Structures are given as C-alpha cells and as structure tokens.
Amino acid sequence: MPKVLVSDKLSETAVQIFRDNGIEVDFEPALGKDKDALLARIGEYDGLAIRSATKVTDKLLAAATNLKVIGRAGIGVDNVDLKAASQKGVIVMNTPYGNMITTAEHAIAMMFAVARQIPEASASTHAGKWEKSKFMGVELTNKTLGLVGAGNIGSIVASRALGLKMKVLAYDPFLSEDRAKELGVTKVELDELLGKADFITLHVPKTEQTANMITAEAIAKMKPGVRIINCARGGLVDEDALADALKSGHVAGAAFDVFAVEPATDSPLFNLPNVVVTPHLGAATTEAQENVALQVAEQISDYLNNGAVTNAINMPSITAEEAPILGPFVKLASHLGAFVGQMTRDPIESINITYDGKVAEMNTKALGSAAIAGVMSAQNPDVNMVSAPVIAADRGIKVSSTTQEKSGVFDSYIKLTVKTADRERSIAGTVFSDGKPRFIQIKGINIDAEVGSHMLYTTNKDVPGIIGTLGQTMGENGVNIANFTLGRSNVGADAIALLYLDDAPNDTALAKLKATGLFQSISPLKFDI
Ligand SMILES: NC(=O)C1=CN([C@@H]2O[C@H](COP(=O)(O)OP(=O)(O)OC[C@H]3O[C@@H](n4cnc5c(N)ncnc54)[C@H](O)[C@@H]3O)[C@@H](O)[C@H]2O)C=CC1
Ligand SMILES: O=C(O)C(=O)COP(=O)(O)O
User: In what residue span(s) does the D-isomer specific 2-hydroxyacid dehydrogenase catalytic domain sit (predicted)?
Assistant: First the structure.
C-alpha cells in the first residue's frame, strides 16, 4: 500500500481522501518545520503533501529513497528544489486553482487597507484615541492599477479592480492582446506601468527573471504617491529600497503579505507608517484550504494508484481518462528507447521521435519523455519520465519530435532515431488492438515482433541456415524461444532476427552463435514489460 506524509498544515480533508483511495497516510503538520526529523523519516514515503513551510531541498530528496510524488497544496513551488526533484524522477504537482480567488481577494483587501490605512486606524481606535483627522485616505475609483503578472490570480484581481471602477494596466510578457481585451485590461511594458499606476500589485512567480524586479531604479520610475501591494512572493521587491522610498514619501504606502525571508521576524518594512503587513495569509481561508487539500490528495492518490498526472510542474500531464489509452503507447515509446539505448554505446548527440497517424494527436510530450527515459535506462536504471528529459538536457542531447499524418498501413506508429558521432539508429513500433506494443521496423527493415522481457537481436546476411542455427543453439542451451521474427532488406542482403526468449540467453549460447561467423552482431536485450 503506498504511503504518504502530510508534513504541513493541511486541512484534514486530505487525510480522508488518501484513506478513501487506499493510501496509508501520516498526518504530521509540524514535521515540515523540523528539518532533521523530516530527513530521518522521508525515506518511508511514496508521496509527500506540503504547503510552503516544508523545504524540499536536494538533501531531503537524496534521503527520499521511495518518493515518487510531491504535491503542493497551493501554487508556489519555490520551496521545492525542482531540478533536484526532476533529476531524481520525483513528480512535483501543485493545485493552481484552489486558492487563486482567496489570494486575489487578499490583494484587493490589502489595497483597501493601504488606501485607507485601516490597520493603523484600527489600532489607534482600539487604543482609545479618536484620530479622525490623522487617517486621510484615497479613493480607488478612477485610479490606475498596475498589474504585474496577469495569470490566474492577476486576472481575478483585474476583474475585481474593474468592478471597483479602476483602470487596469497589465505587464506580462505572456499576455496576448486578445486575452488582455477579454480581461478588459491594457497591456503595457513595465516602464509604462511604473510611470502611470497609482497602485501596483504583483502576481508573478519568483523566478530568475522576476527576483528583485522592483529595484530602487524601478521605484524611482514610479509616480510619486504610488502604493505597492505584494501578495505574490518575497524577494520580488527590494525591501530596503522600498523602505527608503516610503521614508522619503515617494511611495505613499505598501501592503505586503510575503517577505524575502520567511517566517519574517524582521524586515526593513516593519514599523514604517502606512505599511500593512500580514504573515503570508494570501491563501488562508477555510474555502481555499479545503480546495487545495482535497485537490492535492486526489492528485497524489491518482498518480500513485493509476499513473494519472495532473498539474505537474516537471512533467507533462496525463489525465485519468487518457492514462489507459496512452499507457500502451507509453510502454511502446519506452521499449523503442530501451532497444536503441541498449544498442548504443557511444555518447548520444540527438534523439528524434516521429509520431505518425493517430498517435500524433495524443499526449506526445509524455510519450517523448517515455522514449527518452527508455533510451537512458540502459545506462541508468533509476531514470524515469520525469528525470530523463532533464538528464538528457544536462548532457547536451538534442531532442526533437515530428508529427505527421498517417503515412503507411498502421493507424499509428512511433519511430525513434538516435544519433551518435558516427552512426544513426532507428526503430519503429506500433500498438496492436490487443494493446501490446510491437516493433515493426529496425534499420529500415520491416518486421513484426512482440516485445518480451528477454530478447535476442542479431544482424546477418540473408543466407540459408540462420533460423536453424539460432533455433538449435538456443535449444541446446536450454533457452526456450517464445517467438521468432525475421526481416531482410532484399534477397541475400542485410537481414535481422529478433527472438523473444523465456530466459536470458547464457554466455555459452552467445559464444556458440558468435563462433558460427554467420552474424555481424548478436545483442541480448532486456525490456521492462
Ligand atoms: N500570498 C499567498 O499566500 C499566495 C501567493 N501566490 C503566489 O502568487 C503568484 C501568482 O500566482 P498565479 O497567478 O496563480 O500564477 P500564474 O502562473 O497563473 O501567473 C503568473 C503570471 O506571471 C507571468 N509572468 C511570468 N514571468 C513574468 C515576468 N518576468 N514579468 C511579468 N509577468 C510574468 C506569467 O506569464 C503568468 O501569467 C505566485 O508567485 C504564487 O506563488 C499564490 C497563492 C497564494
Ligand atoms: O499557494 C501559494 O503559492 C502560497 O503562497 C500559499 O502558501 P501557504 O500554503 O499558505 O503556505
């Protein structure tokens, strides 16, 4: 039974869902904050469900010997070392929609709070002061909101702001003009946004490009009296530079939910007038926490039970509906890769995958990952669909794919071509209606070979006696042949044989075959059926 650890404060709804799906679950919401205890325990688990407190470092991943999937009950995965997870073949999923409304609402609430200085006014009133004239605010109506990042949360913030009769400018390099029109926002460059906005709200992930994107220089380009809201990620804004701008009065107010260092016990922004701060509460509503807990538990369970991949950051998604149809083609792609991988000793320069016919309309990203994993599995048995593309990229292997309409007799086929410095190998295969993958072409020679756990592949000239020699040698050495396939390019020309064996051929059998001088190559192969 797969075993999952919940190491952050998730709604207990998740626990019930895991149990309903036949998954053993340990609910230890404090463990994420205890690095050493987590490190000692992580080896037990197939799945890990987290929020932002658990830091999934390369060290933790190295100890996670059974881990297959990490589910983030929320959006940002900057607390997970994605590269290390991918290299280890661990899928990282998030729940991109469960807390987006709640977080957008928090950004709007923060905008109101900073426009009307509500937290300070509230504290002052609680203190028995009646400072009516101290807290003069500004209206939002007709003001310009600068939206940095118009993804899921940014789009909701835009719709709410438009409802408040604000004008919305959006800076997002991936926002199309059509989508901007649909959202009712004006797409602008960052400098224009900085110069025109009365309020600026950030909704981008923290990446190499966005880290520290709001510097002292960017702040200097802003309109005097601007107010800045950050409910996205700490580290997007230079907190020291913002503190200076708040002190000089160039920036009239700031509302921050996220900080460069969290938990934030100190920040240059703390204790400045008209700075509203909350302790990373963007996603903290009952509704959002129910949503993300439910979704993450369903997604992790689906993956561990059925191989369905939803909302993965480091692997193409495979829906629960497509998993059964895609499964045999995933196997095929992996077998094609394994065939070439076992035949290739030299460094691989490139891999091309051609999808012909119906398979071209399937999830070719997932199939490509399976093919690459197959190729690399000969050298590294731990490689999988998550890690293979990362490892291939690290090794400088160029991966390309081609899709084409049905070009032959098969409704669907996949052809894999692998190039090394001095040669090219290709193999094609299909899936028959029985759901079993078949090899249909090797080196351009047509065959029809069912794939077995143990196979023997030989190349030879098309001369009499090959079948007899192969059959007799296997028989004399106690290896039963389940299936025998031959192919040739032309009479008397290049020929190949593929034997599906019940056991691996032993060294004596291989030596005997070699001694006949009939074969150019004799390769025992293994496949993970
Ligand atoms: N405070 C909190 O508790 C929460 C914070 N978040 C954070 O909010 C942020 C946004 O989340 P979503 O909207 O769901 O993400 P999303 O992926 O839907 O949208 C992000 C947008 O940023 C854009 N973007 C990427 N690089 C950019 C750049 N260099 N300049 C401008 N735009 C860029 C993307 O094109 C995309 O449209 C994330 O950082 C997430 O972690 C999310 C939930 C809760
Ligand atoms: O979903 C996100 O990206 C968040 O930042 C929410 O974080 P949390 O789950 O509240 O620690």
Answer: 4-314
Length of the chain: 529
Residue 70 near residue 6, CB atoms below 8 Å? no
Tell whether ligand 1 has an atom less than 6 A from the beta carbon of residue 205.
Answer: yes
Whether residues 138 and 161 share a domain: the answer is yes
pLDDT in tens, 447-482: 999 999 999 999 999 999 999 999 999 999 999 999
Residue 77 domain-assigned (yes or no):
yes
Say which of 51, 72, 227, 280 is annotated catalytic.
280
Q: Which residues contact 293 (CB under 8 A, 6 or more apart)?
A: 10, 11, 12, 13, 14, 17, 73
Ligand 2: centre distance to CA 80 (Å) = 13
Q: How confident is the model at residue 155 (pLDDT cuts 50, 70, 90)?
A: very high
Instruction: Say how many C-beta atoms besides its own lie within 10 A of residue 65's C-beta.
Output: 11
Q: Largest Cα–Cα distance in the chain?
A: 106
d(CA 251, CA 245): 5
- Last residue of one domain, picked from the residues 397, 413, 442: 442
Residue of 120, 262, 290, 450 marked active site: 262
Instruction: Please indicate, yes or no, whether the overall pTM of this predicted structure exceeds 0.90.
Output: no
Domain assignment present for 282 = no
433 and 488 in one domain?
Answer: no
Report the CATH number that the domain containing residue 53 is assigned in CATH: 3.40.50.720
Q: Are strands 412-420 and 424-431 parallel, antiparallel or unpaired?
A: antiparallel
Whether residue 91 is found in the same domain as residue 173: no
| Cα distance between residue 450 and residue 427, in whole Å | 14
Is residue 237 within 8 Å of residue 228, measured between CB atoms?
yes
**Whether 182 contacts 158, CB under 8 Å:** no
Domain that holds residue 172: 100-277
In the Cβ-directed half-sphere of 27, how many Cα atoms lie within 13 Å?
A: 14
* 273 and 131 within one domain: yes
Tokens 């076992």 sit on residue: 342
Beta carbons within 8 Å of 273's beta carbon, 6+ residues apart: 120, 246
| Cα dihedral across residues 6, 9, 14, 15: positive or negative | positive
Q: Are residues 367 and 303 in the same domain?
A: no
pLDDT in tens, 227-256: 999 999 999 999 999 999 999 999 999 999
Count other Cβ atoms within 10 Å, centred on residue 27: 15
Whether 448 is covered by a domain: the verdict is no
Specify the 3-state DSSP secondary structure of 109: helix
If one counts the domains in the chain, the total is 4
Residue 189 lies in a domain: yes
- From the list 227, 233, 335, 488, the catalytic residue is 233
